[in-house]
């Protein structure tokens, strides 16, 4: 689903402002590099910039989005706007060569031409060198937009010829809205927005049975720890370690615990929009009333300390047992 201009402004205000200023003042660089994590709106912003260059009735630098030029660019069938993406695992020299041949011709509908190279870091060495020559001798009224998640994998000589525009990770509340718009249940989207900032990963996790079960197990362990603390150790052996086996999985479990106690703190602060487990709000509200802010702070610190111990390769079973003791008022982690 293509993002709207309003969404792009909300997601990437600095990038949006830079590009609108360039369009308004007609100061467009011959080459841009859009750099940032997946799911931050880079490709949508590239489409927006292309529309701004070709729009028949722009208003204060903004493309109308409705004219035939804007519509054709949005649907990928404008003869003077070309998108290059990996053919398999890489962008090959022949793809860049075909692009160069196309751009040696006069524009079909105007003097201007634009090309977008998505996943530019996946160019082969030969393709990158061919593109470099293209950038070194740009055709008049040609605009290049390179998109990458990993600019460090690109030739420094290409980077030096592009105007860099950085795209930052989306705030959790905005990313949650994106997930919901893609069909993810709001309850799951609230949690996933704290775990990842990549749209595809979030959508995949939302229907991943292992992750769905992981959420249930951690919530149940929290409930047992609160209501029947002496059963917590048994639950670790019966439910927890049979599900969380890898180090990365245990780290995720610690994050889920962290989000639970952080939710209690958010409830005390009346920040209900920030909850990771909105479906547990009624239960958590009761718990938050019976817990001091100081105690919550200590519990959060304990969980963070557990994460540090895990990264130092402490025995996972011992770590989790000590964490359960601490969260119910036992001895400090060592």
Automatic annotation (TrEMBL):
One GO cellular component term: DNA polymerase III complex
UniProt KW keywords: DNA replication, DNA-directed DNA polymerase, Nucleotidyltransferase, Transferase
Record-linked Pfam families: DNA_pol3_delta2, DNApol3-delta_C
Ranges for domain DNA polymerase III delta subunit C-terminal: 247-327
Highest taxon of source: Bacteria
One GO BP annotation of this record: DNA-templated DNA replication
InterPro entries per record: DNA_pol_HolB (IPR004622), DNA_pol_III_delta_C (IPR015199), DNA_Rep/Repair_Clamp_Loader (IPR050238), P-loop_NTPase (IPR027417)
Chemical reaction(s) catalysed: DNA(n) + a 2'-deoxyribonucleoside 5'-triphosphate = DNA(n+1) + diphosphate
Any one Gene Ontology molecular-function term assigned to this protein's record: 3'-5' exonuclease activity
Signal peptide (residue range): none
The enzyme's E.C. designation: 2.7.7.7
NCBIfam families tied to this protein: holB, PRK08058.1
Record protein name field: DNA polymerase III subunit delta'
